[in-house]
Amino acid sequence: MVATRNEVDALLDRALAHSTAEKTEALYIAQDAALTRFATNQIHQNVREHDASLQVRVIDDGRIGVASTNRLDEPGIRDVVDRATAIAKRSAPNPRAAVLPEPDGRDYDPDLGFVSATAEAGAELRAEGARAVIAAGEKERLQASGSFSTTVMTVAVANSLGIRVQHRSTRSTLLTVMMDGFASGAASGYANAGSPDITTIDAEALGAEAAAKGDRMRGAGELEPGEYEVILEEYAVAGLLEYLSYIGFSGLAHEEGRSFMDLGKQVMGENVSIWDDGADPSGLPAPIDFEGVVKKRVDLIDRGIARAVVHDAATGQRSGTGSTGHGLPAPNLIGPMAMDLFMAPGRTPRDELIDGIRRGVWVTRFHYINPVHPKKAILTGMTKDGTFLIENGKLTRPLLNFRFTQSIPEAFSDVRGASSTTKLLPGEFFGGYRVPALHLGSFNFTGVTAAEGGG
Amino acid sequence: MKDLIERALDAAQRGGATYADVRVVERETEGLTVKNGQLEGASSNTSAGFGVRVLVDGAWGFSSSAVLDLGEADRIAAEALEIARASRIGRKEAVQLDATEPVKDTYRTPYQEDPFAVSLDDKLRILMEADAAMARVPGVAIREGNMVAGRERKTFASLAGAWIEQEIVEAGGGIEATAVNESEMQQRSYPNSFGGQSVTGGFEAVRALDLAEHAQETAELAVALLDAPQCPSGEMDLILDSTQVALQIHESCGHPTELDRVFGTEASFAGTSFLTTDKLNQLRYGSDLVNIDADATAPGGLGTFGYDDEGVPAQKVPLIDRGLLVGYLTSRETAPRIGRSSMGSARAWMWSNIPLIRMTNINLRPGDAGSLEDLIADTRDGIFMSINKSWSIDDRRLNFQFGDQAGWIVKNGKRTQLVKNPTYTGITPQFWGSCDAICSSDEWTLWGLPNCGKGEPVQTGHVGHGAAPARFRKVNVGVGRW
Fold this sequence. Notes:
The complex is a heterodimer. By secondary structure, chain A is α+β, with helices and mostly antiparallel strands. Chain A has two domains: 5-133 and 145-173, PmbA/TldD superfamily (PmbA/TldD fold); 220-448, no CATH class. Chain A has helices at 5-18, 74-90, 116-120, 123-139, 203-216, 234-248, 251-255, 313-319, 408-411, and strands spanning 23-39, 42-60, 63-69, 143-159, 164-179, 188-195, 226-232, 274-276, 298-302, 305-306, 340-343, 359-373, 378-391, 394-398, 402-407, 415-418, 423-426, 432-435, 438-448. The longest helix of chain A has 17 residues, at 74-90. Chain A is globular and about 70 Å long. Chain B is of the alpha+beta class. Chain B has two domains: 2-226, 2-Layer Sandwich (PmbA/TldD fold), CATH 3.30.2290.10; 234-477, no CATH class. Chain B contains nine helices and 23 strands. In chain B, helix 1 runs parallel beside helix 2 (70-87). The termini of chain B are far apart. In chain B, 61% of the residues are buried. Chains A and B meet through strand 1, strand 2, strand 3, helix 2 and helix 4 of A and strand 1, strand 2, strand 3, helix 2 and helix 3 of B.
């Protein structure tokens, strides 16, 4: 099922050759994905998917047409090109969007982030990983849920202006939530790891981390909502960063005045730097975008100053900066996306972040984050799977989950410490995030889950 | 295709499966977006493939492929069997399915005007007229209009003898205006956010929206919101329009009544539920006015079909009866655990996904409070909120917070001051317990929600929610610092 590099090239060639349009782009995305899911200490879902699709974008006289198919034989290729062409013919011209990138001569590693061991991992290996996590939970009398997945992905792009790129990568993710029931105050712990290389994921250690956290959460009690100093573990920081990217790091959001990124202005503390780098092997690398542009490193927040946003070919042309290699498949209505994010570590050993906090809250991670006000980057969400009261530099008791409603640039303007180490985490919806744990001066908790749900 | 299905089922049986089903699905979608007077996106997408699900010694295995030939049927069936055998590791309880009888049948979405047969010119003309009307309002920064069409042809067959062919047709559309200044971004959508309104049915539903007719007022409200005062904070009586009631149902009733969540099998991603089975027929979920049904038979609903993806017929069942929890959304695997048979809620997004318990149309029955204006006239001191823009709820579906596009202060039975960024928060049973008025059937709309996410790998769900405006007493509004 997995096509060779030459087979993919030939497929793209056939699509371009069939098109009579002024400009044509062919995008091939193939995915071989497997996922083993477990809950209440046993595997309950176990799935595999083999799929490959061809998407064709044609541009004629400023008119754009896009079509896709997963039928990749000759009739399928002809049909998808014909459908895209027909749409373009009947469309109105849109010169501001009718842009295809040109080759810029920059190089990339076509196998960066590809690990054979991950590609070859089977259901048995995933089941063994699940079993190790479950065993760790059982030791602490906890019910383990989670998933262990592997993905092999190929992205290849060719266009009539000379772009021709192909990248394959692997990814493995293991996550678990461990609980001892569903009532308020029940124990609940969490751990998550992602890597291109499945052999670097230590299921036993990950299970032990979640089990220890879950055990410590037994008997959680209420604390009055309000503003507290907080420690955000890397899971919580990555969750916030994913949403900052979604609402604010895009060139389109910035162009339309929807972003909190006021370029050139101090928007966060001087000790905060955030960048995107799809070619950094310490992340979950993806060195090309879906328009075939080799990704550039983009320094988004540099010592608290909003420096840049990411661009695709269209927003890059309109802004005059050119594409930074962050395009999504056409027709892309949400704009370019930063998906390989890094946040600079600090100098504090992770274990010492808590020192000196007289009274605060420790947050392991957030659940169901959503924007309340994108332009002010006000987000809301719940704490989950490990929320603790901090008193005099120590965790003193577990807490029921809080709801927060908080402007994140405001919160990141008072970073009192960042761990000297960082952790690589897969995004909940997209991308990879390498981030430190943070000590923030203030975070606004606006509600708490009732002790027993009422009723 | 018949050969492929029979080949895969045969291979599964020969390989030791005690149960197997095959779904062959062909999905076709079209999307059209006009932005600021230009055609921003026009696309036509097709995807086809098949999935094989097997039970071996009480453990599930599933594999899927886009290659539709007999050799691949053998290979994918073998892979599903191999995965099922791996699933047996550590298996404590064998999967038991209910006794649903296998059915041979066909179902087709009824419609008047095939959305794929409407020309691009026709569709563009509707969107461009709406765009032009929005453009006449000074201060609008972004004008967007969109249309979607979908057609899914699928065949479900099982070793037990089921053979069901279905064609589900969808259509939808909407408009949105965005106004921005230095510190604010305000949006107004028509008739709803999330792309407007979507139905199972034909293009007649899109024409009925009359987008151009509503475009100017939509744009005017987006601009007016920029200078509106911030929503006040405090405890107030809250009136929600039917679109926001629909999302409130989705998040706080639809999801927590999914029986797989109740049993913890979504704990690691979507979460669990506070509606544990000990609360069935015991828990007072809401006030006596609150009656909520799961109805996969409702005409035009985005969660309407003939059979679910386990071959169970579409049904209408009560979830909340006069405020009492009386039912769950179930599958063939989960229903027997509460002594019931599946009510037909197991649905898969693509051919490459397994069926999960998904909402169908989760509908709040209308009340007798008359029109929205009657309800406002009956409210002395409160706030009216309209069309969702932000949502979040905890993993057990108790603590929620919603933000809407627009709010109006209600004083002495009149809608007065417009306010921006209105939000409200609460705890599910207390909130529904405070419901003291639901508008009458004339105000009831079956809204389509096309962006429900669940499962790993994440599956999108198309679901529906019937709702009328409703009033809730003493709700915490205006959350956070602004």
